[in-house]
Design a protein that fits this description.
The protein is mainly α. It has one domain (4-73). Helix content is 51%, strand content 0%. It is globular. The model has no long low-confidence stretch (mean pLDDT 80).
Length: 74
């Protein structure tokens, strides 16, 4: 079980991933994507500004989730 704040960070991460090209999403291991889906907040609604670059988006403190994915993909 993860904390509510962490699960909100996961929800934001998944929101960002929904806007990424499929070629990048396919590089993320299925097991990790399953972990994210299982542990995301069911009630949190992300309000991220998708017109900005990923590194410019103000997100939850759990930004290391998306940063880790970004490091793996780039």
């Amino acid at each position: 079980m993860v904390s509510e704040e962490f699960s909100q960070g996961i929800a934001e991460t998944l929101d960002i991933l929904n806007y990424m090209d499929k070629i990048y999403i396919e590089k993320i291991p299925k097991k990790f994507k399953d972990f994210l889906e299982k542990n995301k907040s069911k009630s949190y609604v992300s309000h991220l500004n998708h017109s900005k670059k990923v590194n410019e988006i103000k997100r939850k403190d759990e930004r290391y989730i998306i940063n880790t994915i970004y490091d793996v993909l780039v």
